[in-house]
Amino acid sequence: MARLSLLLAFALPALVVAAPVPKGVKKKAHTNGTWELVEYTPNGVVQDHSRMIKVWTLDGEVLRVGGSSYSLTLPDPDKPAQRRFIPGGGGAGYAAAVEVDGDELRFCYTPSRTDPITECAPAKNVLFYRFKRVDDAGK
Asked: Whole-prediction pTM value?
């Protein structure tokens, strides 16, 4: 009985401390805010982006670039990185992905409506954009 008491006294607290934090409790990186374009890579080839609109703003599912607004819908809440990029004219949109890592955001979409994007990275048939956070609208 004494061994069981010692085991419970030392092992149980260690298990509780080492238990993973449930997903709903962890602070998630968010996309809301103002972002500055730092890289543009269409079809896997880095291009000069000096003449492109540098500041983009994300607010929920609305993307603002210059004076234009676009939709970045979230069709599957279980896959928050996978989105639909819908230009201002509407329509079915394009397969897209948005990933945030600290103050870096990666946004990409494919001109082909059928190619799903599972990872936001430079690749053939993918328009890849990388941004740094300018303003954090989620705080």
From this structure: 0.73
- What is the C-alpha separation between 31 and 136, in angstroms, rounded? 9
Beta bridge partners, 63, equal 58, 70
**Cα separation of 126 and 34, whole Å?**
23
Distance CA 111, CA 32 (A): 24
DSSP assigned state of 103:
T
Our CA angle for 26, 29, 35, nearest 5°, is 170
Is 108 in contact with 124 (CB distance < 8 Å)? no
Per-residue pLDDT tens for 64-105? 999 899 888 877 777 767 888 887 767 778 889 889 999 999
Specify whether the CB–CB gap between 73 and 107 falls below 8 A: no
Structure tokens at 40: 């543009």
1.25.40, 3.30.300, 2.40.160, 1.10.10: CATH of 33-135: 2.40.160
